[in-house]
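Lecture notes, unit on protein representations.

Consider one protein chain, 245 amino acids long.
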Amino acid sequence: MDRPHAVFFDMDDTLLDTSGRLEEAWSAALEGPASVLGTDTGLLREAIRREAREFWKDEAAVGHWRTDLVGARAHVVARALASMELEGGLAREIAHAYEDELLPRIALFPDALPTIEALRGAGMRLALLTNGPIDLQRSKVTRFDLARRFDLVIIEGEFGRGKPEPEVFAHAMERLEVAPGEAWMVGDNLYADIGGAKRAGLHAVWIHRDRLELTEGAAMPDRVIGNLGQLLDALELAPPAPGIP
């Protein structure tokens, strides 16, 4: 396959390690509330995990919650507390506490910037397509100095549409002046990133980071990679020398 003229990237768990410290963040967020509620932190975390799986299993049905993640999380926590016959008044406090604990722990994957710079050096146009609320996602873009590295940044809360909706991919292709066959989409979410890209006619690259597995009934990617180094290998590109500005 010819090299693409443009590469579109998801942000969370593709370029940013958002989930790697998730359990650590939950443990810190739940310690105080669990004590107040007179329950075990581990049992509460397991109930939240169970309710979150149930809540998000049909992403199309709950897609509107992507721009209110604290609200979605509070809803999940409230359901978890109810399942344990515990008072639900702390649900929103727990949701905020989790976000406060998680955000400082988010970091760039070590292969993110070298990959971006290698693609830029090869003359490819780059777009960052991220779902989620404006303030949260824009703060990550700013914190990790991503905007200057991309020709286009689309945040669901700003654009008014999110992946997998076709308008997101169509807008990115129009702005970067590429046809579907000239663009690759790289992301970890089989529903939003891969399903959306496939329907838009892009070459869909699923990155699993050795954490995820293909699920039955999910959109099937055109290419599977464990890390971004494998993306550069597929494109026959070498990473830049150390010391990326």
